[in-house]
Amino acid sequence: MPRNTSLPFTVSKTENFFDRLGDYVGDVFYDILPEKGYELRDEQIYMAFQLEQAFKNKGTIFAEAGVGTGKTLVYLLYAICYARYKGKPAIISCADETLIEQLVKKGGDIEKLEDALGLHVDVRLAKARENYVCIKKLDPLANKTGDMDILRVHDEIPDFVFDTSAVMKSFERYGDRKEYPWVPDEKWEKIAWDPLQQCSTCDWRHRSGQTLNREYYRHAQDIIICSHDFYMEHVWTKESRKREGQMPLLPEASSVVFDEGHLLEFAAQKGLTYRFNFENLTNVLTGYMGQDVREESLLLVEDILALNDDWFELLADSANMVEGSNRQQIPRSEGMLQMASRLNDMVQQLLEHLVFDSELFTIDEYHTKIIEEYLEFFSYGLSILLKDDEGIYWLEESEMTTSLVIMPRLVEDVLKKEVFSQRIPFVFSSATLSQSGNFSYLAGSLGIENFDSFSVESPFDYENQMRINGHVEQEKDSKWEEIKNGLLNNHGHSLILFSTTEEMNQFREWSADQDWSFDMLYEGDLEISETVRKFQNDESSVLCAHHLWEGLDIPGEALTQVIISSLPFPPKDPVFQAKRNHAADAEKEVDAPYMLLRLRQGIGRLIRTNEDHGIIHIWMNTEELKKYEKDIAGVLPVPMNW
Questions:
Q1: Boundaries of each Helicase ATP-binding domain copy (predicted)?
Q2: 3-state DSSP call for residue 322?
Q3: pTM given for the model
């Protein structure tokens, strides 16, 4: 059946699109939605007409709207209509895969809009690469493992993937993490794409799951939904992909909406990250040595590989573990910097040799381009490391390899040039965008100079729908006992939010010896949307999580209690340590704002509709109570009882 991509209202040649759009939006919120049983909300209508100005002026707007204002329906309506008007899809960029699921799941916001307005919305998902199975990792692993979860994934891979005679027209999409919900996160990492995979030179690349899914979503006519991480990867790789003769990860957009936009800065830093391990450089340069090149080039390659080995050995010996993080801090020693500088100089020399060798000898052009691209990437990453105060860097170790990660400290210049210089509407949507009503901090960190903004409060009657109890932790086991009592008194129906994976695992170990009359679900045991589905359908269950402070939308009796096991301060890892080092008062400028924002998000998981009700328990230690009691009280929707 052909898709209906026409506007849901008529515009004659003598009429202005935005005038007709305004009339239609008014009809939707004043007449159509109320007739379908939706509540008429002043906050939603106010937001709608604020967004109209952003679309009309092709500007940036910060739309801070509390829980229950129906902000998602508003931005979806504008994004769809404007996409059809411009003939280009809108991009909805979400904080993570959980938020994406809220939009596209059965009964989610897009389906609600379709049903209410009689629309068929062409929406497609552009997921980050780690959400797809990697055949290069899976196939050899399946030949030597006895793990039934992994073997089951291998059995479900379509036959054409392994049949080199199969023609392209017989290929179908496959390999999405969601298709294998039984696989725990820990096992998924063994068979999913990871940053060590060199897709551009992979034999499987034309029949890989991520390639086929990418070909599908690129043709969306209304909306492409992706994560912030994926959007920033698109920004970061756009030019290099063009140079390699590849398409950018995302097509040109008519507009971009950043849902939970307050989290974009970290995604931008992550997207602009340089990740190196010595195996990558060895693999690339070994390929170069196999070409027909001069002897002096071969000698230079040998010197680079030897120095690279020595450098990584120094990094590993000097790195310090960071509690609660897999990131190891690297001291900025003179010896480390001298070796990095020598390595960078030698790589620059090799780039010059590469140009000369490619002119003198017959080197495969594609291979030359891959080597050149990697060496430039390697050199630029080192240049950030060598400049004082521009980079954040750390070491990560796995069973397979050691990786050096380099991230730019500030991203506003890149974003200003590569993103917000476009003359299209940008919408930031969240319940937590401002600091005491001021949006300039977020705007400045993202390189946004001109913007509009507004705030609307939640319409919920929190005083009658919610209670908040505060608790002071004296001893870990007694805290777990009190949490257990809270779960039993509520007969389950609860979400427990932990600050870290380690804290969740401590509780899990303790709770394994307890008798529970309901199911205890833990983030990571299954694919996340499957875990959330189980929690929603089994109303007495308890969900334990460390990532679901935002994005989880479970209305009704399945969630009537949120237990915040500890205040969600940022980790002590190198990224936040760099922020602390550049703050006049790290506690006031970094730690407290992060904690308070995340706390607000966690509290927002409880009341999702006018009918919802429940209780929130917030745990902290004596020192935190003394230091932050007043700040916490300032962000709570109701007073806290002790």
A1: 30-305
A2: coil
A3: 0.80
Q: Phi and psi (nearest 5°) for 489?
A: -65, -30
* 411, 394 Cβ separation under 8 angstroms: no
Check whether 66 has a pLDDT greater than 90: no
| CB distance 25 to 48 below 8 Å | yes
Percentages of the chain per state (helix, strand, coil), in multiples of 5: 50, 15, 35
CA 207/CA 161 separation, integer angstroms: 6
Q: Which one of 125-139, 165-179, 495-509 scores highest in mean pLDDT?
A: 495-509
- The sheet with strand 520-522 has its strands ordered as 520-522, 542-545, 494-497, 561-564, 614-621, 466-473, 640-641
Helix or strand run (H / E) with residue 110: helix 109-117
What are 69's two structure tokens?
A: 């204002």
- CA distances 244 to 43, 272, 635, Å, are 48, 19, 49
pLDDT-derived band at 424, boundaries 50, 70, 90 = very high
The pLDDT tens digits for 145-166 are 999 999 999 999 998 998 877 6
At residue 363, does pLDDT exceed 80? no
- CB-based contacts of 71: which residues, under 8 Å, 6+ apart? 44, 47, 63, 65, 429
Distance CA(521)–CA(507), nearest Å, equals: 12
The string of pLDDT tens digits covering residues 515-525 is 999 999 999 99
Give the separation between CA 568 and CA 591, rounded to whole angstroms: 9
* Pairing status of strand 402-408 against strand 391-397: antiparallel
Cα dihedral 316, 320, 323, 327 sign: negative
Q: For residue 371, count other CB atoms closer than 10 A to its CB.
A: 21
Length of the chain: 642
DSSP code at position 512: T
Give 261's contacts (C-beta < 8 A, 6+ positions apart).
Answer: 62, 428, 429, 430, 433, 442
In 194-322, which residue ranges form alpha helices assigned H by DSSP?
A: 209-217, 228-243, 264-271, 278-289, 295-318
